[in-house]
Automatic annotation (TrEMBL):
It comes from Luteipulveratus mongoliensis. Keywords: FAD, Flavoprotein, Oxidoreductase. InterPro entries: FAD-bind_Monooxygenase_sf, FAD/NAD-bd_sf, Flavin_mOase-like. The lineage of its organism: Bacteria, Bacillati, Actinomycetota, Actinomycetes, Micrococcales. This is FAD-dependent oxidoreductase. Gene3D superfamilies: FAD/NAD(P)-binding domain.
Amino acid sequence: MSIQVDHDAVVVGSGFSGIAMAIALKAAGRDDFAILEKADEVGGTWRENRYPGCECDVPAHLYSYSFELNPYWSQSYAPADEIQDYLLYCVEKYDLRRHLEFDSTVQDAAYDDETGTWTLTIATSWGTLRTIRTRDVMLGVGALHEPHIPEIPGLETFAGELMHTATWDRGTTVSRKRVGVIGTGSSGVQIIPPLAEDAAHLTVFQRSAPWVMPRSNTLYADRLIDTFEQHPAAMRAHRAKLKATSDLRERGITSAPKLLKAASRLALENLHASIKSPELRAKLTPDYAMGCKRVLLSSDYYPALASPNVTVETAAIDHVEPDAIVTAGERHQVDVLVLATGFDPLGSYRYLGIKGAEGHLLSSDWDAGATAYLGVTVPHFPNLFLLLGPNTLLGHTSDLQMIEAQVGLVMQLIRERDRRHLKTVGVRPQVVPEFLAELDRRSKQTVWASGGCDSWYLDEEGRNRTLWPGSVAEYEKRTTRPEMVDYHFA
């Protein structure tokens, strides 16, 4: 029976995951695909996050595709604008623009058991609906762009300027204004220094003090850029060194926390050297093990907090009023309120109604926790592939390495399916429980579970369904040489 489809494959999302997947499809000669993007341009995380001070905390030469190295990074840690430009360059170089369909939000996806195809319902910002029928669906919907909005009583009553770091309006000015920032994670540590420079007064509402390591963001000299441009082997060697040294941190986080003691001492020395006030220093001293939350890199965060126009408030927020944040017994007047409260790692999936084989709903199957085999395939959802799915984010190095490994796995699976002249491929339900038990067992040994902190890495039951509890090298090995017996071809 001939099956009529609109596209052989549909890639959802045009951030790093979606673009990598599209490039791989094109390289394999599978040119009949569409890239659906909800916004009006590519970029994902780096399109959305444009707040002051926004940079990547992974070295630029590692936070780029291994097959598309960029000699032109201006500094060791790239700012958001440069990363977005890099993605735009990749889109043009690999001729992806003609595959892109903007203003296309996937509302639901339904699998047809008889034909082995997916039907996607897509909405535009104008409210119109259309459907696309496809054989394969690759979800590159991202994990770090759906803002997490804290549940604070009265937040909706705030009458001043209120924004999340992911929805920052570039026309915003805080000059001569009283500013409040809730959150001291990755985005908070980056946005606080520039806000402290301009605000009349800045109040930082800190729930727990982060571990902060000094960062040297070296500007690359023209001579070094020329060397990388003219001698790609030197650039590849530089990347390989970054990859090896970054992955070494994994053991300290996952199995041998004692290895982080030297780094902890360096972080505390940095704190003592930067903060002279004993009272402020006490507020900024972490009370949990390093690595339990993401270790942050900044050399201007502590100096900003020591500025005379900055207050660090550690008392819990009681409620929000139209012009103030109220903590225990104190009222902090603010004109601008910034939520540096991070992201919901599964936020994008929560808005997708995905119906798989035999009536399985992804949202229902994930009621007890988001799970996927190697973060890519889910039982009862054939020909559906996740990129940066559950348990594949990293806390110590570049997620792009995981993306490339996952894209490679997807290509192997669909190539093997087609070699067998079959319609579908999906993970066997029988292999997933053992895999999840392995993740639980290994996660219990990590500092995330034993370090004495609450973080978005763990779910409400304290289970890790976010990070990969191992090295990148191990994950690459398991995805490069997959056990085909773990998959069902039908």
